[in-house]
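Box 3.1 A note on notation
Throughout this textbook, protein chains are presented in two layers. The first layer is the amino acid sequence; the second is a token string describing backbone geometry. Keep the layers aligned when reading.
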Amino acid sequence: MVTLKQLIAKLDAMLSARHTEKQWQQLFLDNPFVLSLAFGLPIVSIGDQMSVGGRRLDGTGDKIVDFLHRNALTDNVSLVEIKTPGSKLLGTEYRNGVYGPSAELTGAITQVLDQRYQLQRSIAVIKDTSRRSDIESYAIKCMIIIGTTPATPEAKKSLELFRNSLNDVLIVTFDELLTKLKHLLEFISPVGQSD
């Protein structure tokens, strides 16, 4: 519980400051449990900054995912892209009370879907050259951790409508991760001792 309280305090403090993607990636690298909590699956880290394919003959074009995980029970892989809490989730108002996704969000979605595409194309070679028999690409899960929950009811509605219409990419905000950790602390704490 002490470690969880420290993690909550650190995440809360980081949300109040302007940290880079690299600093957020380091937080998740140091605390892999947070990503497992976000997925809601028993995931095991394969690594960070992993090449998932796409290399051209001239040596350029590698697609690098922030985190590559596998399900501890099925070996199915998942990809995680980390952005920052300051990343915009929504663009300007499209129509009365309706907001479209931002360029940052749609770019991140396309990025992780391209990484998945490259991994699916290259999985046999990657498994062979890496001597990994414990990874599978049955149905590669993709997650993006980006931004914070919008403030207005209309913007919240637009975000929920958009992200819940996506079949292949889970979008989680940084403040949602913090709230999940706080709820977990409340759950495991004796009554009246989660502070």
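DSSP finds six helices and seven strands in the chain. The chain has one domain: 2-188.
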